[in-house]
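Task: sequence design from structure.
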């Protein structure tokens, strides 16, 4: 959550035994030398300021010298686990430059800045509290999106890699008026991103919860919009919450899409994206089946939100099966089945429309 915004805190949901077994089977579980609670044991902190000397609302943590040395060694081992499969030979090349603590938002993550001492190149990763709905979001990102996502859990600690790109709000403010901006390509990508979010019910894609990657092509730039916040996977009850087009701070990009893309072309891009998602879905049938089984049994939102979302989606599709959904997982996979025309992939209990 960004500076100045007001939002009710999201409820955290524990990882079920079945889901934890799934994560272990697919190599998402590891024995970590540092956990979230360890990083809370600081002796002091000070505000992290940006280049304009503005408070970022991150606090740089200060640790006791002996304790900090142990913590930093553990964080370096976590970094090489994420980036190079745990190759300890590169550990002497690295040092921990900062541990920053986020003082706003739901997850209150730690951001670790790692530097290679031989060339001063730096990278980041995040240490967070593990939340079941967020983890389902990360897994669905891996399976259904065009993006690789790297994370590990140990108990209630979640380690996430840093996703590179320009934060959406910064991109809108600083890049939309650039002369080399390929507006049509950006508009096309935002329409596809909007579709990816809705098909798998990833919510709250305000401009500060995604990044824009810009890749030079032999003619002009290509763009990829990537989610960086998965807290609101299948969590909210409003259908519009899963469509980035409805968030006010995305309006400049939405206006761009409206101005440049006619409804017929927009529908074409939506169909293209659903076709790509369907291919990815069919490529991992066993993994999808196991994830679906776990998610459909799990509680990752309130009963009130489940009732509202199943009602709104039931009206959208004119499909009575949503009224039978008892969990957000069932709603999510029925939505995926209908959006991708995968009738046989709806949860078994919901296959009959009557």
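Answer:
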């Amino acid at each position: 959550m960004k500076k100045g915004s007001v939002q009710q805190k999201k409820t955290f949901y524990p990882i079920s035994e079945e889901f934890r077994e799934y994560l272990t089977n697919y190599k998402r579980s590891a024995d970590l030398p540092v956990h979230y609670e360890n990083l809370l044991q600081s002796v002091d902190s000070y505000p992290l300021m940006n280049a304009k000397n503005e408070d970022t609302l991150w606090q740089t943590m200060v640790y006791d010298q002996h304790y900090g040395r142990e913590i930093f060694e553990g964080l370096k081992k976590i970094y090489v686990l994420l980036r190079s499969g745990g190759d300890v030979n590169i550990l002497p090349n690295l040092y921990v430059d900062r541990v920053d603590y986020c003082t706003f938002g739901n997850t209150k993550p730690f951001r670790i800045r790692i530097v290679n001492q031989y060339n001063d190149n730096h990278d980041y990763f995040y240490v967070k509290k593990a939340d079941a709905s967020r983890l389902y979001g990360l897994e669905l990102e891996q399976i259904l999106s065009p993006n690789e996502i790297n994370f590990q859990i140990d108990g209630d600690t979640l380690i996430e890699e840093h996703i590179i790109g320009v934060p959406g709000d910064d991109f809108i403010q600083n890049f939309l008026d650039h002369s080399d901006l390929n507006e049509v390509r950006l508009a096309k990508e935002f329409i596809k991103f909007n579709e990816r979010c809705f098909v798998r019910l990833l919510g709250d894609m305000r401009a500060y919860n995604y990044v824009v990657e810009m890749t030079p092509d032999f003619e002009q730039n290509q763009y990829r919009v990537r989610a960086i916040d998965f807290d609101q996977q299948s969590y909210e009850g409003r259908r519009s919450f899963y469509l980035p087009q409805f968030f006010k701070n995305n309006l400049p990009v939405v206006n761009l899409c409206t101005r440049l893309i006619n409804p017929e072309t927009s529908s074409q891009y939506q169909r293209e994206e659903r076709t790509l998602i369907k291919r990815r879905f069919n490529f991992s049938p066993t993994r999808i089946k196991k994830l679906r089984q776990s998610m459909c049994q799990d509680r990752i939102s309130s009963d009130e939100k489940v009732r509202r979302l199943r009602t709104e989606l039931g009206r959208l599709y004119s499909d009575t099966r949503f009224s039978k959904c008892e969990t957000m997982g069932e709603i999510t996979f029925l939505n995926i089945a209908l959006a991708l025309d995968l009738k046989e992939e709806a949860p078994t209990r919901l296959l009959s429309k009557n």
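DSSP finds eleven helices and ten strands in the chain.
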